[in-house]
Amino acid sequence: MPLPSPFHQRTSELCTSLLWKEWAGYYAVCSYGMSHEPEYHAVRQSAGMLDVSPLYKFDVIGPDATEFLAFVSARNVGKLKLGQVGYGCWCDEHGKVLDDGTVTRWGEQAYRVTSADPSYAWFSRHSRGFDVQVKDVSSDVAALALQGPRARQILEDVCDGGDVGDLRFFYGTHSKIAGVRVDVTRTGYTGDLGYELWMPAQEALKVWDAVMEAGKPHAMLPLGLDALDVCRVEAGFILLGVDYFSARRCMTDVQKSTPYELGLGWTVHTKRGPFLGRDALRREKSTGSVWALVGLVVDWDELEGLYNSFGLPPQLSSHAWRTAVPVYDQGSQVGQATSGGWSPILKKNLALASVHAAHAVPGKRLQIEVTVEFQRRKVSATVTETPFFNPDRKRA
Q1: 352-359: average pLDDT
Q2: Reduced to 3 states, what is the DSSP secondary structure of residue 34?
């Protein structure tokens, strides 16, 4: 049975739809109303606030904290400045991705790591030989994601100290909200201007109430996972268990992925000392990858024509989809689209796909499988660089 998050007393009152799902062992709202669309538009036009407490969170401290995290991460964590947040992944010794997440450097030898998968045992096992402590603080720390073009103004109104208005992209600061110490990072999973707030779980409701009150003049809404899923597809963000699978859970090597195959090559730093997967990743960088992650924009005219051939109007769900479908080139399967959906702001039908590297050429026309009236057909889809949606305000 799922557990209530530190914000459950508030989220349960607001979730009139009664649409919930389990996320990392916690109750999580799918959408607060019967439709997620108002929440999506709040993120893109004003602001939305999401309970992200189910994220796994680990404090890593000690004289060897930097060396340890640099060893287990594909990214060179030692290059992070104080207060900087680094996104990246960690791999097994074969260079296959186990998980992706963030590392925030709060002190010279004090970091916080977030992940989608439970990783405490893995971190602990590899900490042997390092003078470092790894502490699982997942249940001790509550977290909120405040996302959207009005997010900065809301935080400036509610925060006491920390100069949150001047906070740079992927940096963090300390502040107070309703008298509660809060760590603020300029991060998120929507591809928009956004922040995440980290606070003691026992004082979480004070922060929720204060931010909700500050958000009222800006038409801020509580945000569920259904709207978030649409946003993250527009942003081109991959999702563990959907767009890739943790190497430790895969039954065969074919199911495993490398950072380069997931579009995370920019987070890999191979020109440094030993780290897990380094030799395999160096070889792959030299010889090239088998797969590549691409964006696809589905041809609307062809899709409309396909439905018309059945005497039907186009039928697209407003929800993002997560059931993989084949991708073809001239009749031969060259990959699979793993997630996608209709983008309300771009007015395009989008997908994220893993294809053979030779086909990952922007502008190339492929075909994606579409099922209409139980019949499997194909329509064209153009390979497109991600993110699909990338507003200037995200980094400004």
Answers
A1: 98
A2: coil
The set of residues, in sequence order, having a beta carbon less than 8 Å from that of 186 and lying 6+ positions away, is: 85, 167, 168, 169, 170, 171, 172, 194, 195
From its phi and psi, is residue 187 left (phi > 0), alpha (psi between -120 and 50) or beta? beta
Distance CA 331, CA 314 (A): 24
Closest-CA residue to 178 (of 138, 209, 154, 215): 209
Q: What residues make up the domain containing 35?
A: 8-55+139-223
Type of residue found at 101: G
Does some domain include residue 235? no
Residues with Cβ within 8 Å of residue 309, at least 6 apart in sequence: none
Confidence of residue 94 (pLDDT cuts 50, 70, 90): very high
- Is 94 in the same domain as 167? no
- The closest alpha carbon to 198, from 143, 140, 116, belongs to 143
Peptide bond connecting 274 to the previous residue in cis, omega within 30 degrees of 0: no
Rounded Cα gap, residues 7 and 144, in angstroms: 9
Identify the helix (H) or strand (E) that includes residue 44: helix 37-45
Cα separation of 381 and 296, whole Å?
6
Amino acid at 183: D
Within a domain: residue 339? yes
Q: What is the pLDDT of residues 154-205, one digit of tens each?
A: 999 999 998 999 999 999 999 999 999 999 999 999 999 999 999 999 999 9
State pTM to two decimals. Answer: 0.97
Q: Distance between CA 143 and CA 151 in Å, rounded?
A: 15
**At 146, which helix (H) or strand (E)?**
strand 141-147
